[in-house]
Amino acid sequence: QGSAKCVDGCLEAISLAEQIQDYPLAAVCAFDLGHAYKDLPEIRDLALAEGWYQRSLGLFAKDDQMGRARCLGQLGSVAYERFIDARKVGRPPEVCLGHLTQAHQYRMQALEMLPPNAVEDLATIHTQLGNIYGDAGQIDTALRHYRESIRHCEAMQERFLAGQSRFNAALTLAVAGRLADARDWAQSALRDYQACENADEQVVKTLKLLEQIESRLRATSPPS
């Protein structure tokens, strides 16, 4: 429900779980607290989010690869949000790059830990890596990760998620000035979203991106 009241319940739950030494449950509670402090605007605190994800990572058993990989992925998300925040306020390039590098390291660790059948998690991690490489200006590497994400999405017959990866690829290409390629990817994303129910918001967003791309293409076309 997006309510900060969830924190009280999670704190009580993790306290009880640790009292009865149910560490897998305690790990899940800590993970949820990380989400709360990362995602809820009312209480957003990336330092607290990072702390709870680290605690969750420590509570998951060493052989729980899925749980640990998801914690690493979320630690990567915290680092990436710090990168976004730093870029917005014009922090020095080395500060921004430090956060982006940390996000990459965490997500690569998560990728190496995920089992081959964790296709949804793999799709998400590859999209996130695509975003990181795109922000770093390594466009071809970004596209390789977006394509890998789409491969996993299509294996699950998840056109909505495939559309998200294609949209991110289009946005990355547009920012890099590769407008014709960006248009192709955006058109593919639009077809994905149009084939899905409850994707009206994404359809509108993609149409706006296409409009912006077409406008830039017209501006850069030589006069006839």
Characteristic terms for this protein:
10 helices, mainly alpha, 224 residues
First and last CA, distance: 55 Å
Low-confidence stretches: none
Binned, the helix content reads over 70%
Strand fraction equals under 5%
- Structural class call reads mainly alpha
Counting DSSP H or I runs of 4 or more residues, the number of helices is 10
Quick overview of this protein structure:
The protein has 224 residues and is an all-alpha fold. Helices cover 79% and strands 0% of the residues.
Describe the structure.
This protein has 224 residues and is mainly α. Helix content is 79%, strand content 0%. Helix 3 (46-59) runs antiparallel to helix 4 (65-88), helix 5 (93-113) runs antiparallel to helix 6 (119-135) and helix 6 packs antiparallel against helix 7. It is globular, with a radius of gyration of 19 Å.
Helix/strand layout:
Blueprint: H1 6-19, H2 23-39, H3 46-59, H4 65-88, H5 93-113, H6 119-135, H7 139-155, H8 159-175, H9 179-194, H10 200-220
